[in-house]
Each structure stands twice: as C-alpha cells, then as structure tokens.
Input
Amino acid sequence: MRVATWNVNSIRARVDRVVDWLVREDIDVLGMQEIKCKPEQFPVQQFHDAGYELEIHGANQWNGVAFASRLPMTDVEQGFQHIPGFGKPHEDGSLPVEARALGVTVEGLRLWSLYVPNGRAIGDPHYDYKLDWLGRLAAETTAWLAAHSDVPLALMGDWNIAPTDEDVWDMSVFEGSTHVTAPERAAFAAFGELGLTDVVRDRVPVGYTYWDYKQLRFPRNEGMRIDFILGSKPFADLVTDASIHRNERKGTAPSDHVPVVVDLDVPTSLDDDRPMIF
Output
C-alpha cells in the first residue's frame, strides 16, 4: 500500500499534474493540503476517471485539505476536537475555524491530512494561533492514542516547521523568522514525545520538500523540509520504504511543495487486480 502527502498549492491549477502523478506512481491514498477551493469547486471528475474517490474539506479560496483514495474511506472527520479558530469573530464572538485538518480511516489505518498554520511572523497573532493549533492537536492526539493504542496512526502534511537546522538551506537567512523558532520546534518535538516518529527521515535523511518560487530557490536548491509523515509505532512498524519526489517541483506550473511517500506492508483489496510482474 502506498500512502502520500502533498501540498498541491491549488488543486484546480494542478489537477492534471496531481492525477498523472497518482497513476504513474501507483499511489493508493493521497492526503492533500492547500487545495484552495470549496468542495463544489474541486475538480472531482479527473480523480474519478482515474479510479479515486475523494473526501474534501474546504471553505474558501484559502487553505483546504482533502484525500484521494482508491480504497474505501470511513470515519471521516473534519477538524479535530477543540480546534482553534482564527480571523474576524462571528456575531456570537466565536472565531472562524479554517479547513486545515481532515481524518479518514483506510484499510485499518487512521490518516490525517494536516495544513499547519504558517505563523507569518514572530509576534503576529497568526504565530500564537499556530502554536495554539499545534498544542491542541497534540492534546487530541494524546487522547486518541490512549483510546486506540493498537491502531496505526499517521499525521501527514505541511507542518510549516523545519525541525532541525539541516532542514533549511541556510539558517542565517531565517534569523528572526518563523518555521525555525524554539517554540515551533518544541511544538513539533512534542509529537515525538507522544510516541510518533518521522517515518521518512531514517530512509531519506537528506532532502527538502519545499522551495519558494522566488529568487531561483529551486535551481539553487535553497529549500526547506517542512512536509512530514509522523506515525505511531503500529504505523511505523508497517513502513517498508519512503521517498521524497523532488522531480515534481520541475516542469510547467509545479506546486512549491513536492510529494512525500511511504510504502506500507498492508495487503489491500486492490492487490488481486494489479498485473503480475514476472
């Protein structure tokens, strides 16, 4: 079974690239971030024609998460308990909840597609929102693991955090910026303390997942590693391989992120339908 995460940076602008990649790389389940559309605006037909069903959580032209899967998805959950809001308050004083988290269960795996808030700048309210969002996600994960300790869990997506200095091309460029601050890194490390591990790092120790469009960042390989798949021990025990698909940053109109993929030792109902290789 092949599971992947990809910040597609507008699915309507990149649907052909995404679907082509899904089929070419034989992906079973893809968690997407930054779809940037409402469910009714999502280009569903191309996915259906390729054999994928969809679960979509989008509210406007910003943010948004989704899953595409060739396997049945159940227990769909939009957002997590006590997820914080951000923005202009509603009339009742509550804050709008953004479309940043979507959970599904596939073949016994509990998968989340997550788009962690960017933070914008140190001291900005969005930075505090980011830390609060991560803290509440950690609390929800703690409770979930206690209740479902044997179920393989993966939190995948764009975390908007570079956990180590090696995850950016030049730390001096990021002095005084978000993504590398001690509080953000501590918030990321908290998931390790819960027992989740980066299931890609050991197999792909070096490599970025994001390059800005500006200043020739990709040709110069001035990137960041901010997209991750964090798995519980039951999930990590199933991983047989992992990869970062750097070439998807090339070509016409790419996303500024690339897919991160894990192969799992999980037999599926599709296995009998695939061609035999001799």
Observations:
- DSSP finds five helices and twelve strands in the chain.
- The CA atoms of residues 229 and 269 lie 24 Å apart.
